[in-house]
Structures are given as structure tokens and as C-alpha cells.
Amino acid sequence: MVYFVRELHGWWSEERKEPIHSLETLSPEEGYTKLEDAHARYDQQRTFRAKGGFVHSFSVNFFGKKHNYNLIAF
Q: What pTM, to 2 d.p., does this model score?
């Protein structure tokens, strides 16, 4: 089993009158073999985004409610 870390951004384009989605894979092409390594990369990216001014973080939860929400700050 391998693990991947991806980041999805979405916004509304007034010009195109449609939502725009940008998906970026933040893990190596072959993925992470350890869940702990994937979590570390995820936490690193959240810290990077918080330093850049982001305050909302959503992540998929496959074992419970639909998603996890965290207010992030640095």
C-alpha cells in the first residue's frame, strides 16, 4: 500500500462563469510507503499555507464524517 498527499484549490471564475479547480500532487510519484511520512508532508503543507495567510483546511475522512475541518493559523 502507498499513500499520496494532494492539494485541491477551488475558486469561482467570474469571467468564465464556472468553478475552477487546481489539483496538485505533493508526494513523490511513487507515493509514500509509510502513513507517517504522508502525514508529515500533509502537516508541512498546512504550515506552509498558514504562513501564507490561509486559515481554513478541509481533508477527506474515509472512516467517519464526510470531511475534517480545521482552522489553521501560524
A: 0.71
